[in-house]
Design goal:
Blueprint lengths: L2 H6 L7 E3 L2 E3 L6 E2 L13 E2 L3 H17 L7 H17 L1 H12 L3 H23 L5 E2 L6 E9 L2 E5 L5 H14 L3 E5 L6 H13 L6 E3 L4 H10 L3 E7 L2 H13 L4 E5 L5 E4 L6 H12 L12 E5 L3 H12 L20 H16 L3 E4 L16 E4 L6 H4 L6 E7 L2 H9 L8 E3 L3 H10 L6 E2 L18 E2 L7 H4 L1 E9 L9
Parallel strand pairs: 7-8, 7-10, 8-9, 10-11, 12-13, 12-17, 13-16, 15-16, 17-18
Antiparallel strand pairs: 1-2, 3-4, 5-6, 6-20, 11-19, 14-15
Helix pairs in contact: 2-8, 3-5, 3-7, 4-5, 4-7, 5-6, 10-11
The structure holds 1,4-dihydronicotinamide adenine dinucleotide and magnesium ion.
The site of 1,4-dihydronicotinamide adenine dinucleotide (NAI) has 25 residues, from helix 8, helix 9 and helix 12.
Length: 499
């Protein structure tokens, strides 16, 4: 299949989707950018600003107050969302092409993994909404209180480029099902699929003003959305640096509810009691080198007991060869390029820094055919560094794993927690006591024992510490996009009745 040719023949929409139609940004400004794989000009997506945010919030608020969507029964909302998911499924190839062209991540990843996962998340939440109950306190003799979840109102969603459809679906599906009106600000590197999805949402029956997509720069559209006083919730996935700003924007405006899923430097502990080092190396490579390492929960810090270090290193080198980058448009390739020249330079700078500081760098030897200027980086293993070194502390967001050594598991857990992040973590061991001790000890929102990246819509996903606030996925996500209300009811004994 010629993805480039198919993309050329598509009628690609680049404008914002506001109140049920495509519109230009008021300033007519657009985003200038080029493919990191082949330099294709991808400019022209509307760069919305403060004025566009203003208009969109008005429409979204109006839709919320009218209540055409909000007042639908859970079953009605479910049916529309299920139809929406079916329609997205029919556009699976188109959406995968848009994301591949914009981000230069492997088409294979989008078509077989990301797009189906996003659709699955929408179905999961749709199926959940009419099976999930609110609560009541145990009734008193003369009083009763219900505790129900109310929508927030207008909700802003700011997403990153590393998994455009999945991250957005994790947020917009529960937000919509709770009755909110949503405004999605996709990343400037990956806006096309979400712009298309907005139209599909309308065709599925989501009323105008309820599902809006505002492409633009973070500093302009994203910031204006997060600072808006009529926006009652802001839900963000991206860097911890911007996450911190989002909290401030909330404080500076109306104390809107904030949900954050930020960066990570997740530890992957390998014990000397690990009975299958080959499996551990395989699982590690699959999770740290997939999508050129552009994954928030990537296990990018391996902490290994000295005794098994050398054997593990050799196994990891072999496994890394399976994730060398190649042409993202070739369906057989499992790894494409880094999203942008900027991100590519950032990753390279970290590798150079490690080299300058005397670290040992191993890069996979196999090379797949790709144009000379493509922004790809070979799977990279860095050793001979300390946990306090910059490469071991910062989120690099590239195919780079740092290998650290520990004397024992106690020290490994201490090192694992010596980070501002706390998204995910793992221990590989056959010793049950050790596994339990580590799972309890690792300060992160997720811990895996003898696995990594296990994924199910039923399980919440979100970080401790500077990796975020709140959870994506699972029925708990409905709580994020709503606020609890307690209603007390007091009763008098009807006349003529005795207690
Ligand atoms: P970023 O955090 O700047 O961008 C994420 C989203 O936030 C985008 O939609 C962007 O437009 C928006 N944004 C940026 N500045 C904003 C602001 N002041 N107000 C409101 N919204 C704003 O991430 P970026 O610059 O693309 O990547 C830099 C680093 O961030 C990466 O190298 C990686 O370490 C980390 N990152 C982490 C992600 C994760 O999944 N946790 C995803 C993307 C990046
Ligand atoms: Mg940024």
């Amino acid at each position: 299949m010629d993805i480039k040719e198919k993309f050329r023949n598509m009628n690609v929409e680049k404008r914002a989707y506001i109140n049920g139609k495509y519109v230009e940004s008021k300033s007519r400004k657009t985003i200038e950018k080029y493919s990191s794989f082949n330099g294709m000009d991808l400019s022209g997506i509307s760069a919305c600003g403060k004025d566009d945010v203003e208009d969109t919030v008005k429409c979204a608020k109006n839709a919320f107050e009218l209540g055409i969507w909000r007042k639908k029964t859970p079953e009605e909302k479910k049916n529309i969302m299920l139809k929406f998911a079916d329609m997205l499924e029919c556009c699976r190839e188109e959406l995968a092409i848009l994301d591949t062209i914009e981000t230069s991540r492997a088409y294979q990843n989008y078509y077989y993994d990301s797009i189906p996962k996003a659709i699955g998340a929408i179905r999961y939440f749709a199926e959940g909404i009419d099976k999930y109950y609110d609560s009541a306190i145990p009734p008193r003799e003369d009083a009763f209180a219900t505790v129900t979840r109310c929508p927030l109102g207008v909700v802003g969603i700011i997403t990153p480029w590393n998994d455009p459809m999945v991250v957005a679906a994790w947020k917009f599906a529960p937000a919509l099902l709770m009755g909110n009106s949503v405004i999605i600000k996709p990343a400037e590197q990956s806006s096309l699929s979400m712009i298309r999805v907005a139209e599909i949402a309308s065709e599925a029956g989501i009323p105008k003003g309820v599902f809006n997509v505002l492409p633009g720069f973070g500093e302009e559209a994203g910031k204006a959305l997060a600072l808006h006083k009529e926006v009652q919730g802001i839900f963000f996935t991206g860097s911890s640096e911007v996450g911190r700003q989002i909290v401030q924007y909330s404080g500076m405006s109306n104390m809107k509810k904030v949900g954050l899923e930020c960066g990570g430097k997740s530890p992957f502990i390998v014990s000397k009691n690990c009975g299958d080092l080959k499996e551990a190396a395989k699982v590690l490579a699959e999770n740290v080198f997939y999508n050129q390492g552009q994954i928030c929960s990537a296990p990018s810090r391996v902490i290994i007991e000295k005794l098994v270090r050398d054997e593990f290193m050799e196994l990891l080198k072999k496994e890394s060869e399976k994730f060398v980058p190649g042409n993202p448009y070739e369906i057989r390739n499992n790894v494409g390029c880094i999203v942008s020249k900027n991100q590519y330079e950032k990753v390279k700078t970290y590798i150079e820094l490690a080299k300058r500081n005397g670290a040992i760098i191993y890069q996979a030897k196999t090379v797949k055919e790709k144009p000379i200027n493509a922004c790809c980086i070979q799977p990279t293993i860095i050793s001979g560094v300390e946990n306090s070194d910059k490469v071991a502390r910062d989120e690099i967001f590239g195919p780079v794993v740092v290998l650290l050594e520990a004397e024992n598991i106690q020290e490994a857990i201490k090192m694992a927690n010596d980070t501002p992040y706390g998204l995910s973590g793992a221990i590989f061991t056959d010793d049950l006591n050790e596994a339990y001790y580590a799972a309890k000890g690792i300060e992160s929102g997720l811990v895996h024992i003898n696995s990594y990246g296990e994924d199910d819509n039923m399980a919440p996903f979100g970080g401790f510490k500077e990796s975020g606030l709140g959870k994506d996925k699972s029925l708990w996500a409905f709580d994020e996009y709503s606020q609890q209300k307690t209603v007390w009811m007091k009763f008098k004994m009807p006349s003529g009745m005795r207690g």
